[in-house]
Write a sequence for this structure.
């Protein structure tokens, strides 16, 4: 790929990862969707091959890889299918530990995150609270040298598989403004009072286990507090830039894949005595999609470079997140339409892509929230 942030070593890494996925993921993906979970054995294999958190420092088992390696991984995993969950672990959850964790916490958790012995999740969303993080109701009240956590989280990616969850909770329920009472606390599997609900039945991304998490007087050591009390909201705002950028990158990859399989299909499918690729409607639809994808990819490429240079691009990332996820939904709908009745059949990849793409405009902050951020930064 001719990208300013990719070098030869990234392409060597891509070839290695693609070979690994073609052998260990592609043949089993349909089974993972049936089970609604990626097996832990796959996580272990990925860890052994260096495909979990390669950016982590070498002293914790990583490779000090730059962000471009994360881009490669996002692209290659999304090429296989949406919702494998490793991207969330690699580039969304574990960075919180790396940046805000103490040395003792890093020693305790990072090596296991890299090896695949620990699967991570982050618990933000609650049954009555989605994008309005300041309004969460889960509390963590100090009692001796522990926090007592009470509350319920929902739609938690990797929730069922997780050994380690960063829980967004209120250590000061009376703080004014409310967001100043939010903290991040790590809750480990097996903690008394912490239990996982059943896997949720979702419209798409079936291979990605998603569940409710319930905390009933869960006793968590104060040593599991990430960073400082009351700073959780600020930590979230800082890290959501990368999460939303990763989603834009995945949406580009998925859009390109849907266009690729549709181009192949319309050249083979005939109607009225000729391939449907010869109809002007088909040509115009695909030309429009290709143009939009190319324009979007150029914008995201620029943001990747800016992100690697540690620039503050919250506004631009908000634009990319809503525009690319919205585009991916449009690409899915147009491409499924061009497949005709076959596009509605599960044995055709476009059907899965159609249902997997739908949630992109909702999670990591809904697209309506992205527009609120953009408008605020415009002085409105």
């Amino acid at each position: 790929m001719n990208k300013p942030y990719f070098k030869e070593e990234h392409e060597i890494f891509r070839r290695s990862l693609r070979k690994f996925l073609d052998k260990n993921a592609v043949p089993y993906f349909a089974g993972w969707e049936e089970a609604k979970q990626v097996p832990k054995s796959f996580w272990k294999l990925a860890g052994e091959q260096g495909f979990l958190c390669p950016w982590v420092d070498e002293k914790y088992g990583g490779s000090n890889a730059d962000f471009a390696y994360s881009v490669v991984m996002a692209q290659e995993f999304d090429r296989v299918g949406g919702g494998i969950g490793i991207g969330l672990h690699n580039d969304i959850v574990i960075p919180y530990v790396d940046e805000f964790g103490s040395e003792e916490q890093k020693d305790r958790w990072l090596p296991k995150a890299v090896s695949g012995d620990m699967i991570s999740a982050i618990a933000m969303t609650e049954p009555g609270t989605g994008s309005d993080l300041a309004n969460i109701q889960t509390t963590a009240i100090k009692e001796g040298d522990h926090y007592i956590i009470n509350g319920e989280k929902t739609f938690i990616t990797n929730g069922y598989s997780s050994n380690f969850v960063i829980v967004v909770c209120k250590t000061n329920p009376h703080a004014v403004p409310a967001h100043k009472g939010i903290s991040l606390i790590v809750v480990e599997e097996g903690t008394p009072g912490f239990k996982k609900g059943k896997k949720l039945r979702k419209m798409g991304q079936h291979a990605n286990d998603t569940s409710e998490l319930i905390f009933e007087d869960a006793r968590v050591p104060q040593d599991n507090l990430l960073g400082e009390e009351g700073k959780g909201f600020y930590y979230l705002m800082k890290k959501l830039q990368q999460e939303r950028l990763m989603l834009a990158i995945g949406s580009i990859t998925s859009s390109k894949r849907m266009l690729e399989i549709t181009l192949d299909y319309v050249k083979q499918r005939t109607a009225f005595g000729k391939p449907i690729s010869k109809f002007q409607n088909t040509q115009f639809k695909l030309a429009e999609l290709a143009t939009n994808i190319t324009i979007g990819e150029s914008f995201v490429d620029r943001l990747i470079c800016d992100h690697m240079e540690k620039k503050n691009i919250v506004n631009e990332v908000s634009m990319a997140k809503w525009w690319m996820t919205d585009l991916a939904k449009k690409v899915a709908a147009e491409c499924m339409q061009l497949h005709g009745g076959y596009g509605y059949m599960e044995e055709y990849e476009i059907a899965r892509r159609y249902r997997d793409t739908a949630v992109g405009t909702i999670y990591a902050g809904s697209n309506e929230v992205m527009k609120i951020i953009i408008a605020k930064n415009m002085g409105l």
